[in-house]
Amino acid sequence: MDEQAVFEKVREILAERLGKGAEGITRESRLNEDLEVDSLDLVDLSMTLEDEYGIDILEGDAADIVTVGDVVKLVLDRVPEREGEAR
Amino acid sequence: MGPVTSLGTGITNFWNAIKEGRSGIAPISSFDPEGLPSRIAGEVSDFDPLAFMDAKTAQRLDRFCQFAVAAARLALDDAGLPEGEELEAAGVEEGRAAVVVGSGIGGMSTLEGQHRVMLERGHSRVSPFTIPMIIPNMAAGVLGMVHGFRGPNLCTVTACAAGAHALGTGFQLVAWGLADLCLAGGAEASVTPLSVAGFCSMRALSTRNHDPEGASRPFDAERDGFVIAEGAGLLVLESLEGALRRGARIYAELAGFGMSCDAYHMTAPDPESRGAALCMEEALRSAGMRPEEVGYINAHGTSTPYNDRAETLAVKKVFGELAYRIPVSSTKSMTGHLLGAAGGVEAIATAMALHEGVLPPTINLEHPDPECDLDYVPGKSREAKVRAALSNSFGFGGHNACLAFRAWEGA
Questions:
Q1: How many domains does chain B contain in total?
Q2: How many CB pairs (< 8 A) connect A and B?
Q3: Could you give the ipTM of this predicted complex?
Q4: CA–CA separation, B314 and B25 (whole Å)
Q5: Which residues span the domain enclosing B349?
Q6: How far from the centroid of its chain's Cα atoms is residue B22's Cα?
Q7: Long-range contact list for B26-33, CB < 8 A, 24+ apart?
Q8: How confident is the model at residue A36 (pLDDT cuts 50, 70, 90)?
Q9: How far is it, in rounded angstroms, from Cα B258 to Cα B167?
Q10: Which CATH number belongs to the domain containing residue A35 in this structure?
Q11: Is residue A72 predicted with pLDDT exceeding 50?
């Protein structure tokens, strides 16, 4: 899966949910401090990504996520697992 | 004062429409009402939440909360408390600024939408915002957040009396010295399929679909139910001392508040009107107001066969022969019935009647019900200098509330 495409998708979702311009959201943006994402937003984001990519994001996964780049990495980590299962 | 109604948003638009006797009722546009017996409503069809809040805030609020945020902004602006400077300008400590906002039902459209998500896609797809968007108290909570009001913060949930109970509660908070200032009123957004279907099943709604503007006809012989409406009405209540100190425009004095219960039936009013009469008597008593002083009553006046007859009887019980000389009108003839927001919107209309000396009309009153034989200000608004007025609100559950206002004639 293309990293750039996942990043653009995550950015699009965050921009829409947070009412912000996408250009202000980078891989380095910290969800909490920079984007003011709260715990409910994070659940909402997880659910949207699960639907988008057909993956499962577990409760514990959020603990390691600090930046937008971390979210992208999590999605990329999960997608191959899923593709592996399918084979 | 901040009204958000089908007649207009903001005090000028709203009050001009009331004085002109316009109707805000139209065919339902927010969903397809095909097949429902009642397909008309008082919708705030031009409402733009982004004119009052940022996109993130708007997304996480149900429509009833969005109405409350808008009404609060309008009320604070009208009170001369511009954004960001409210408390400082008013000389009020943040811990002494209260919020009391009522809602009859709360986030009905969120409930319906998320229930559908759960049935179609499973419980794991239900939005984490579901509960915060549904609970009726969130309007008050959000206003505390938006404006930094850290004082008492409450929600009244007494069906169609919720807005009036909120104002009465806010009045008591200020009168008892528990707050210096209180944003109070009601918010409702229940023009939704489930809500309309539920009221239809009760046979509570007008089915005069061919004539939307003539459908809400309180006290008329041909009335056939209320017309559902949405919106919000919030007022800034403050102590006289505080209002004078900062040179605020004072529309009226909220002078008294009466509460009672019908203790009779879940939804039907007591045919003897004991509860409705009792709350008007309590409002007069708590205001130290003599019946002869009252020059106007803003009726609950829903346009249901039951209410209008019972309320007429209640007015006669309280005022005796005087009842025939007191103008009684229903602004629901124009706004429709905003349920938990009605008391807020009608308090605004009552305060404006005292402030401007113009009594709102009861439109569509063409052939009065023989049992409704008071002066309902039919058809056209009327100029009349009145010194005191009452505003009635009665809710399912038998909850009754009555607010007593006096004209403000200067210190």
A1: 2
A2: 24
A3: 0.85
A4: 28
A5: 252-407
A6: 18
A7: B26/B212, B26/B213, B27/B209, B27/B212, B28/B191, B28/B196, B30/B191, B30/B192, B31/B192, B31/B193, B33/B193, B33/B196
A8: very high
A9: 11
A10: 1.10.1200.10
A11: yes
**Which of A17, A19, A51 is nearest residue B54 as measured by Cβ atoms?**
A19
Q: How do residues B292-344 score in pLDDT, each as one tens digit?
A: 999 999 999 999 999 999 999 999 999 999 999 999 999 999 999 999 999 99
DSSP for residue B351? H
Which H or E run contains B12?
helix B11-20
> pLDDT tens across B133-174, in order?
999 999 999 999 999 999 999 999 999 999 999 999 999 999
- The residue count of chain B comes to 411
pLDDT number for residue B246? 86
CATH classification of the domain holding B150? 3.40.47.10
Calculated CA dihedral for residues B29, B33, B34, B37, nearest 10 degrees: -130
Give the largest Cα separation in chain A, rounded.
Answer: 40
Query: Chain centroid to CA B290: how far?
Result: 25
Amino acid at B255: A
B193 and B316 in one domain? no
Question: In chain A, positions 24-63, which contact chain B (CB-CB < 8 Å)?
Answer: 40, 43-44, 47, 51
d(CA B45, CA B50): 14
> Which chain B residue has the Cα nearest residue A43?
B128
How far apart (Å, rounded) are the C-alpha atoms in residues A25 and A47? 20
Nearest-CA distance A59 → chain B (Å): 12
The count of structural domains within chain A is 1
Please indicate whether, in this complex, the C-beta atoms of A47 and B129 are within 8 angstroms of each other: no
Q: For A40, name the nearest residue in chain B, comparing CA atoms only.
A: B128
The candidate with the shortest Cα–Cα distance to B121, out of B133, B129, B113, B132, is B113
Kindly give the residue spans of alpha helices, DSSP state H, lying in B176-254: 193-201, 240-245
